[in-house]
Amino acid sequence: KPDTEVEEFTEPKGDPEMAPVYLRRLLPVFCATFQSTMLPSVRKASLSLIRKMVHYIQPELLIETCGADKTAGCGAMLVEVIANVLDNE
Fold this sequence. Notes:
single chain, 0% strand, mainly alpha, 65% helix
């Protein structure tokens, strides 16, 4: 392919039906783990998983599952993690 060609649509990897379930159940767990541990290896691993989940999730799904009235403060937990990381930079 020439470098000028860009794929317009890429098929999402994994099971799109399970993505909201994983996000809803696991993102708060990873955020709580990051906030509650002092072990650098655990913090690094949980932050890496959070980063991957947020990076690959569709924006609409993130809003749907972590909106202001959803998932017991999932959005607030994400903000706390980001603030914690930025404070340590």
